[in-house]
Amino acid sequence: MKAEIKGSTMPVLEMVLDPGEAVVSDHGELSWMSTNMQMTQTTASGSSGSGRGGGLMAGLKRVVGGGSIFLTRYEPIGGAGMVAFAAKLPGHIVAMEVAPGRGYMVHRHGWLCGTPGIVPTMGFQQSLAGMAFGGEGFVLQRLEGEGTAWVELSGELTSYDLAAGQGLIVHPGHIGAFQESVSFQVSRLAGIVNRYAGGDGHWIVTLTGPGTVWLQSMPLSILAASLRPLLGNGATTDVVAGGAVGGVLGNILRG
Prior knowledge:
Distance between the termini: 49 Å
Radius of gyration: 19 Å
Strand content: 35-45%
Shape: globular
Number of strands: 19
CATH topology: Double-stranded beta-helix
CATH class: Alpha Beta
Largest sheet: 6 strands, antiparallel
Number of helices: 6
């Protein structure tokens, strides 16, 4: 398998697969592919017939984490084939090596694709009330298993290697990914004036090492909020839709 990230501002992940190799993504991530690539829908992310990460419950967990019930598997037929996945926003595509005991937490729309050994599932660590009103940063995907995962991060990318006990306070939407060894604590912003007059929302996230943290400068939720004055009143419900149950809340607000 040969994977190449092309471009800069709007990168594309182009993968050339030999016969017997495969890559798995969420449903709807495909950008383009060669004519000899075969697509199949599955609930299992593991090798054919293994059932790893499969089943209805696994699919429902992926939905809560921001993914889809079914995964799409791409395999070349009759020779090497090519498949490409393009970034949806200006930013970066990052390859992450996943191994048992060395998984990652990523923002809910971050996982782009991976080798068949990657198991995407839900990974939030906060109450339902916190997720509903906290925005995208409160709903996280967990990438576990073994293999390579490619993650899309929006805007400019900054990483920090946190030592054991070293902490970092982050606006929820700016969390792109972090190693599962990093602890994740959500709390309300201290002080009524800070919460209601500071313009930074009601929630903050404290990340504590050891482990590496990747932060994104332009998360989708903040981009949507910035565009709201230009789009009219109808954009309000789209911002709400960033939460875990945002789709439900959005429908209620639409009447």
